[in-house]
Q: What sequence folds into this?
């Protein structure tokens, strides 16, 4: 019997239904975490429904074979990951089909991300722009973040270990959860060089950090923290790390870590740098301040890939099968023996080709025809070669940020066509036109969701709708490889965009029919109208006076802190100190000295300083308010906005 490589693969692929192991990547999003939470709501409930249908009719409903092995998160995605685990452990994730129904608040994902842990009637802007955080201590953030601490406290105080139940069967028993952090202190790494005076060290600082957990950890692997949801200390650490991952720089307060073991850091560095023997120069325990993980790693795709595929990459599948056939022929093996060897290879391939699903409220897209296709040569030169500081300075930030987020060590894996990757991102249409910015909380870099609850409700339901469409139409397998009963095939079969007869990997048993003309499974979730607010109500009545109070309080507090700041020590002539008596320092003119030291002059200066501060506060207040107005207008969030851009819909 002659065996061809491709024929063997096709013949053997459908012999047994293997478990499909997936990793979830939850990108950073600020308040657009409500969208990610909505996606998780629909995904988990769809998996539950599949299990229910299989239990009712095991003959006509295939046994569920999807396992979630890993969840990686950045910023808001980390908080969603933590809350998802808590919701799963307490069964508090019943599908939200009506966000106005009070029953929705029992869903932990919804309560955390739409209610933000507050009663429905309470305004988040009252919390966000309050000045209570400035009464004692330093200015730690531009916004009052006490509400985040209150939300975390609510999650921990309401957590009862007696309520913890076993995880669903689709959650791997030793699930890996990874959260990205940005370490403001950095981990010093030394590279030794020889010199005439002996060895010297060049020190580099590594600022990417990870909070890496293993659910119900059994081994002593130092690279991960143990996560036992029946232990309140483990839950508190997970929530603390998720809060740190979501601490958006400047806007939200940084988070301290005081007791991180040196062994954990060394083990993770060895994993990150693929076994290199790196010994950081740090004390035990290590302390640092952490801010938003999205600043250094906003889409931890590579980390999910490494968790799913811990073994070194092997040769391509066809090459391995070809080698087996060649060796089998040389060894005189029978066709059946060769098939057995190939079958084992195919099973290993299925285990290594594990899908990754990224949920990203703010994906980076390029235009299919290239972003510069319509630009003239002169316009291209102006865009890329203008060396004026006004053009160069703004691009410095983009350069630094893009390079920080670039993952050189994982580029081969991430760009490999063999690695199955799917993405769920915000999409909605109106009258056949696509919204350029589909999520309401997307304005102001994701902070707009703090302003109105209806923005978060919309995004949560849109997340559900986009997840529904993804599972039904875009996360699929070949028709002949599913191993499903014919009843399931008849219900869920469709032709993919690639023209192949296909089946979803996760069947959605809310499906009642298929519209072949529109290529849609029905019914679909109805999100409702895109939310719009009144300019007068939001800006004039609500935000403007609160922003003014917050700006005034911050500037007064900063002035107070500057006055309290100690003067440099002039007693020694240290190389790093320039004393006030240095003869080269520029002197004030005599008239200025007299004006500053006279009573009249002191009064004049005080009046001028008071006027300058009042003017500056007014300018800052107006600038912030105007930026809010412009960006919310660009996102189409105001009613009766005559200046709404034409590109809100495209």
A:
């Amino acid at each position: 019997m002659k065996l061809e490589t491709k024929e063997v693969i096709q013949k053997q692929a459908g012999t047994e239904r293997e478990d499909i192991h997936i990793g979830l990547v939850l990108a950073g999003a600020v308040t657009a975490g409500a969208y990610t939470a909505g996606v998780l709501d629909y995904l988990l409930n769809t998996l539950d429904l599949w299990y229910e249908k299989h239990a009712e009719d095991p003959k006509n409903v295939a046994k569920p074979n999807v396992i979630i092995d890993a969840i990686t998160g950045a910023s808001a995605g980390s908080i969603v990951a933590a809350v998802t685990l808590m919701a799963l452990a307490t069964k508090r994730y019943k599908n939200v089909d009506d966000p106005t129904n009070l029953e929705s608040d029992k869903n932990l994902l919804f309560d955390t991300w739409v209610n933000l842990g507050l009663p429905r009637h309470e305004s988040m802007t009252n919390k966000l722009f309050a000045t209570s955080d400035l009464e004692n201590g330093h200015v730690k953030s531009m916004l009052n973040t006490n509400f985040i601490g209150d939300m975390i406290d609510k999650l921990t105080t309401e957590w009862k270990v007696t309520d913890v139940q076993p995880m669903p069967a689709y959650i791997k028993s030793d699930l890996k959860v990874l959260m990205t952090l940005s370490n403001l202190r950095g981990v010093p790494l030394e590279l030794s060089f020889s010199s005439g005076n002996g060895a010297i060290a060049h020190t580099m600082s590594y600022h990417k950090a990870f909070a890496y957990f293993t659910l119900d950890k059994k081994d002593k692997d130092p690279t991960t923290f143990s996560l036992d949801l029946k232990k309140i200390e483990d839950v508190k650490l997970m929530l603390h790390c998720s809060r740190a991952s979501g601490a958006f720089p400047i806007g939200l307060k940084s988070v301290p870590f005081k007791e991180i073991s040196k062994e954990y850091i060394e083990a993770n560095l060895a994993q990150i740098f693929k076994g290199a023997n790196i010994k950081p120069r740090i004390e035990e325990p290590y302390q640092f301040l952490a801010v938003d993980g999205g600043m250094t790693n906003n889409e931890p795709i590579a980390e999910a890939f490494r968790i799913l595929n811990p073994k070194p990459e092997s040769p391509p599948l066809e090459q391995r099968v070809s080698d087996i056939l060649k060796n089998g022929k040389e060894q005189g093996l029978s066709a059946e023996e060769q098939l057995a060897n190939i079958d084992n290879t195919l099973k290993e391939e299925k285990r290594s080709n594990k899908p990754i699903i990224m949920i990203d409220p703010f994906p980076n897209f390029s235009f299919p025809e290239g972003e510069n296709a319509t630009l003239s040569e002169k316009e291209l030169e102006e865009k890329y070669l203008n060396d004026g500081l006004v053009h160069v300075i703004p691009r410095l930030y983009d350069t630094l940020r893009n390079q920080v987020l670039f993952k050189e060590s994982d580029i081969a894996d991430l760009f490999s066509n063999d690695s199955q990757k799917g993405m769920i991102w915000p999409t909605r249409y109106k009258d056949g036109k696509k919204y350029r910015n589909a999520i309401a909380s997307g304005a102001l870099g994701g902070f707009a969701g703090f302003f109105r609850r209806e923005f978060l409700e919309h995004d949560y339901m849109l997340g559900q709708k986009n997840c529904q469409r993804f599972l039904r139409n875009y996360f699929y397998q070949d028709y002949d490889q599913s191993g499903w009963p014919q009843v399931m095939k008849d219900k869920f079969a469709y032709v993919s965009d690639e023209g192949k007869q296909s089946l979803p990997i996760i069947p959605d048993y809310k499906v009642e029919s298929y519209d072949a003309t529109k290529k849609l499974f029905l019914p679909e979730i109805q999100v409702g109208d895109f939310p719009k607010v009144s300019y007068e109500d939001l800006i004039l009545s609500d935000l403007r006076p609160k922003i003014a109070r917050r700006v005034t309080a911050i500037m007064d507090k900063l002035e107070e802190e500057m006055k309290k700041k100690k003067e440099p020590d002039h007693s020694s002539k240290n190389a790093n100190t320039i004393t006030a008596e240095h003869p080269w320092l520029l002197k004030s003119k005599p008239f200025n000295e007299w004006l500053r030291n006279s009573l009249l002059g002191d009064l004049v200066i005080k009046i001028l300083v008071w006027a300058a501060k009042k003017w500056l506060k007014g300018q800052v207040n107006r600038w912030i308010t105007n930026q809010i107005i412009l960006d919310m207008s660009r996102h189409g969030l105001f009613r009766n906005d005559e200046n709404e851009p034409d590109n809100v819909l495209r």
